[in-house]
Amino acid sequence: MNPPVGRGYARRVTYEELIAIARRFEGQTLETVTGKRFKVGISPHELFFTPESSGFGQSDGRRAHERFLEHYNETGSLRPGDYGKVSRNATYLIGLLIAAGASRTTAPHA
Fold first, then answer.
1. Per-residue model confidence as pLDDT tens digits over 68-99
2. Which of 14, 110, 15 minimizes the C-alpha distance to 62?
C-alpha cells in the first residue's frame, strides 16, 4: 500500500499507473479543466496528447510526466498553473487524471 502524501491525499500515483490510466482512455475524447477536447495516446516510449483543435499529437516526454506526478503527489493540485515549470502538457495530464476519477481528496483509479 502506498503511503499517504501531501495534504492527506489518498495515495501516490506512479508512472506505471498513469500509463494504465492512459490505456483505459486511449482514443476517447477527454476534456481539460477549461473544456478543451483532446485524446491521449501511448507511443512505445511515452504518452502523447492530441488536441481536437489542432489534430497534432504532442508530448514533452516521460521525464516531464514523471516530474508532473512528483508535484501532483506532493500537492494534489489539479490546477494547470501549478505545473508551469514542470510540464507543458499539465492541462492534458490533469484532464486525464480527472477522467480517471481524481478529485481534491482522492487519487485516480488505474
1. 999 999 999 999 999 999 999 999 999 999 99
2. 15
